[in-house]
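Lecture notes, continued. The same structure-token format from the folding unit now serves as the input rather than the output. Read the line below as a description of shape only.
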């Protein structure tokens, strides 16, 4: 009679389908990270409104070290998507609170963009120590926020009020072609000389309007006046070709006439007195 070997390993039990390994869908193999890892919240990884590119870009930004350049040009060098798609993804992250971009002036007067990434929109980190920081000033004592300066525009050689008013009227009609081109009175006053420089180069208002409104980007225009200032400068057409003045007709040569007073010949269309005789006659009269 055979005896059972108590030390023999028990046969492996088959797993029940669907208990640990599903028939369909992803199967995770989790390896615990101990170095070089970043914690990503599901609110970003499974966001229902962000595009896949924006989610991936958010994960990349959250994983880099503080101080890393994440401007559009730097990201376009790092990834193959190009500046247009990267700019759109950054705008998505900014619209949903993951990204904050502000323009600040450095002590030397240079304008820089300050970028802050928030891994949990709506929750800002409290300062570590506020005991030595001055209390915030009341709203009525705070200086008004500085308005971002617009790029310079070309200047016309003719600064007549009529030409500048025509330019302002043209800028006021741009919003009829694209509601995003609604300009303030200050913006229109700044851009008017640039439009006047185009008009004095033999361009019609329709041609100028088409140059400013054609092929606009599909994304929201954050600073439409700055975009128009760039187009007025970058696409300024050359001056019209030189046109010599029309030749003037030569003065007619009249026939010789004998003066009725001194019988001296002089040129005139009809008989009469010469210049000297007319002057002497006028003096004695």
């Amino acid at each position: 009679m055979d005896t059972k070997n108590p030390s023999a390993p028990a046969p492996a039990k088959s797993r029940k389908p669907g208990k640990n390994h599903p028939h369909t869908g992803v199967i995770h193999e989790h390896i615990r990270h101990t170095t070089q890892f970043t914690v990503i919240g599901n609110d970003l990884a499974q966001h229902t409104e962000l595009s896949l590119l924006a989610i991936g870009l958010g994960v990349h930004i959250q994983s880099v070290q503080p101080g890393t350049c994440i401007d559009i040009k730097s990201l376009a060098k790092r990834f193959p998507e190009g500046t247009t798609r990267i700019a759109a993804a950054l705008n998505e992250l900014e619209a949903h609170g993951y990204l904050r971009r502000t323009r600040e002036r450095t002590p030397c007067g240079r304008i820089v963009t300050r970028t802050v990434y928030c891994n949990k929109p709506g929750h800002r980190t409290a300062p570590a120590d506020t005991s030595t920081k001055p209390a915030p000033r009341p709203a009525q004592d705070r200086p008004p926020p500085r308005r971002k300066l617009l790029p310079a525009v070309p200047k016309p050689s003719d600064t007549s009020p009529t030409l500048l008013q025509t330019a302002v009227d043209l800028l006021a009609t741009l919003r009829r072609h694209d509601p995003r081109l609604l300009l303030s009175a200050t913006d229109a006053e700044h851009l008017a000389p640039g439009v006047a420089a185009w008009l004095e180069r033999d361009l019609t208002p329709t041609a100028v309007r088409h140059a400013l409104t054609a092929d606009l980007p599909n994304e929201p225009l954050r600073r439409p006046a700055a975009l128009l200032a760039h187009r007025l400068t970058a696409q300024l057409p050359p001056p019209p070709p030189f046109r010599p003045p029309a030749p003037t007709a030569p003065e007619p040569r009249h026939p010789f006439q004998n003066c009725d007073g001194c019988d001296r010949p002089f040129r005139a269309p009809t008989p009469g007195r010469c210049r000297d005789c007319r002057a002497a006659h006028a003096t004695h009269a």
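Point for the exam: The beta strands are 99-105, 111-117, 256-258, 265-267.
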